């Protein structure tokens, strides 16, 4: 199975680092919107494609712009929500990485489906601060769940730390923050 991980477009939370990381619910910038539109040419979608999206506004907006006019499956899952990388036991979830509620997602992204098989615990806490051992278990569950789509192309719109965490798990290669994908950067992984 090939997964294509795509990092969201430029978000408002990156414009004035590190202070802007304390912005709650940041949206895409004008540049981020342009980057999301570029995905239409780079990865043309069809009805048979699946997009799995992190429940954060900037990832949802990236997927919404990219998939506009295409009736592919769009599934929001907290298992691809922001993840701290490398993991720090004393680390805190920043306001820019707080998961949107199911109600907000349903109200603002009406053609997206919420992954309801997961307990509400995942929808409230996400994977940001999960210790590596627990992340490995939930990540393997997620990868197994992806296999139920069969031969469909699966795109995952997520975050730099999350993508790098999954990549490290899948490849077994130790990675660093230098391996983070850029805005709307992508990574194809076979697993």
Automatic annotation (TrEMBL):
Gene3D superfamilies: Phosphoglycerate mutase-like. Pfam families: His_Phos_1. PANTHER family: BROAD-SPECIFICITY PHOSPHATASE YOR283W-RELATED, HISTIDINE PHOSPHATASE FAMILY PROTEIN-RELATED. This is Broad specificity phosphatase PhoE. It comes from Virgibacillus subterraneus.
């Amino acid at each position: 199975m090939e997964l294509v991980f795509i990092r969201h477009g430029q978000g408002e939370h990156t414009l004035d680092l590190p202070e802007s990381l304390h912005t709650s619910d940041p949206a895409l910038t004008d540049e981020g919107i342009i980057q999301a539109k570029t995905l239409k040419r780079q990865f043309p979608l069809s009805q048979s494609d699946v997009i799995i999206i992190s429940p954060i506004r900037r990832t949802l907006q990236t997927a919404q712009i990219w998939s506009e006019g295409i009736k592919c499956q769009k599934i929001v899952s907290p298992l691809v929500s922001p993840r701290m990388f490398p993991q720090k036991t004393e680390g805190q979830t920043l306001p820019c990485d707080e998961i949107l509620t199911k109600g907000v997602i349903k109200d603002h992204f009406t053609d997206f489906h919420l992954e309801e098989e997961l307990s509400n615990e995942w929808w409230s806490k996400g994977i940001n601060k999960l210790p590596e051992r627990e992340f490995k278990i939930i990540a393997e569950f997620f990868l197994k769940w992806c296999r139920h789509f069969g031969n469909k192309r699966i795109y995952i719109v997520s975050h730099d730390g999350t993508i790098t965490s999954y990549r490290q798990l899948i490849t077994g290669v130790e990675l660093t923050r230098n391996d983070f994908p850029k805005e709307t950067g992508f990574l194809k992984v076979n697993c």
